[in-house]
Specification:
The chain is α/β, with parallel strands linked by helices. Helices cover 47% and strands 16% of the residues. It has helices at 7-14, 18-25, 35-48, 54-59, 80-95, 109-121, 136-145, 165-180, 198-206, 212-219, 232-250, 262-274, 290-293, 306-319, and strands at residues 66-71, 99-104, 126-130, 149-153, 160-163, 184-188, 220-222, 256-259, 282-284, 299-303, 324-327, 330-332. A 6-stranded parallel beta sheet has the order 2-1-3-4-5-11, sandwiched between helices. It has a 6-stranded mixed beta sheet with strand order 7-6-8-9-10-12, with helices on both faces. Strand 3, helix 7 (136-145) and strand 4 (149-153) form a beta-alpha-beta unit. The radius of gyration is 24 Å and the shape is elongated.
């Protein structure tokens, strides 16, 4: 078994004292080293493969300065927005001098609880959840009993930083109303036709006098949701194609279609590109994935403000202070050429 790399080796490589390395790598407040020296020591420690002795720190009641970034389900990793957010968040924790674990939780509640317990055994002190894991209530009880601070991306966490998706949807719906009036549909699955859905909430804010049932009847169109067993992007892509084709058959004069995400919007737009004789529509998705930015058919979209979300998640995951913050999204309107 290879010997653990010592702080002395890091100190020799940087040309500083062992005590200076200890102060820097343990992020002690009383530290008179320059920022340049701190960055050099951290960089060299990473390059040499130095790892703190968490077992020693735990036994002696010292902070391990470790954080875990936990993605709620394996399927979420297929989404570009989750990858981008996770990578930036890990980098931000590193900049703050924290060691970070990153893993995907299971869809099985018992397995997820074992994963959480293992992280606590390893000395994790703070957790940032990306999405809500299965069995979230007992997980939060376990973390609270171990004095581990946790913040989540959105509900149902008591402490959360949430992208205000409904605000992006309001901007897109207003654009559609300006350009094509009420002659558009929100294509969504039955599970999405809920008062809690951000797009439905957006329509309710625009039409406060209408009941949710009236909004469903007037603005929604059922999504073809028969792509089980297919990976995330491909499933929604196929669904978007089939759903928009069916919408145009039933309502050939329709002027706009809003999809739940960019994968479905790309599917619908691809059908229009391949069939130029079909009615030209305003198309909108959500997440502003890389693929739609350069697509030949203009697709409006919105996305979370990654910089603000990462800053806030990193700050509150570590501080443990109360937070229930909604962050306005970035909106990208891409007009149809006339």
């Amino acid at each position: 078994m290879p010997r653990r790399l010592s702080m002395r080796k890091v100190a020799e490589s940087c040309g500083v004292s062992v005590s200076a390395v200890s102060q820097i790598l343990n992020n002690r407040e009383i530290n008179f080293c320059s920022e340049e020296t701190k960055e050099r020591v951290r960089r060299v420690a990473r390059e040499l493969g130095y790892r703190p002795n968490f077992g020693y720190q735990i036994l002696h009641g010292k902070s391990t300065r470790t954080v875990a970034v936990l993605i709620a389900t394996p399927q979420m990793v297929e989404e570009d927005r989750i990858k981008n957010l996770t990578i930036q968040l890990l980098q931000r924790f590193n900049e703050k001098g924290y060691s970070a674990y990153c893993t995907c939780l299971s869809t099985d509640e018992a397995t997820t609880m074992e994963m959480i317990r293992d992280l606590l055994f390893r000395g994790v002190e703070h957790i940032a959840f990306i999405g809500a894991p299965f069995g979230v209530d007992p997980i939060l009880e376990l973390l609270d009993s171990n004095s581990v601070s946790a913040v989540g991306l959105g509900s149902p966490f008591p402490r959360y930083i949430s992208p205000a998706v409904h605000l992006g949807a309001i901007s897109i719906f207003r654009y559609f109303l300006e350009k094509v009036g009420e002659n558009f549909k929100l294509i969504c699955r039955d599970i999405d036709r809920s008062p809690l859905n951000a797009r439905i909430q957006a329509l309710k804010r625009l039409y406060p006098e209408m009941s949710h049932e009236e909004i469903y009847r007037k603005f929604t169109f059922p999504c073809d949701d028969t792509a089980e067993g297919v990976e995330f992007f491909e499933g929604f892509y196929r669904s978007g194609r089939r759903s928009l084709r069916e919408l145009l058959k039933r309502k050939p004069d329709i002027k706009g279609a809003v999809f739940m995400n960019d994968a479905a919007a790309l599917g619908g737009a691809s059908m229009l590109v391949e069939n130029p004789g079909w009615t030209r529509l305003l198309i909108a998705g959500h997440n502003n994935d890389y693929s739609i930015r350069h697509y030949p058919y203009p697709i409006s979209s919105s996305m979370m403000d990654y910089e603000k979300m990462v800053d806030l998640l990193a700050e509150y995951a570590i501080s443990g202070e109360p937070c229930q913050i909604e962050v306005p999204p970035l909106v990208f309107i891409r007009p149809q050429a006339t």
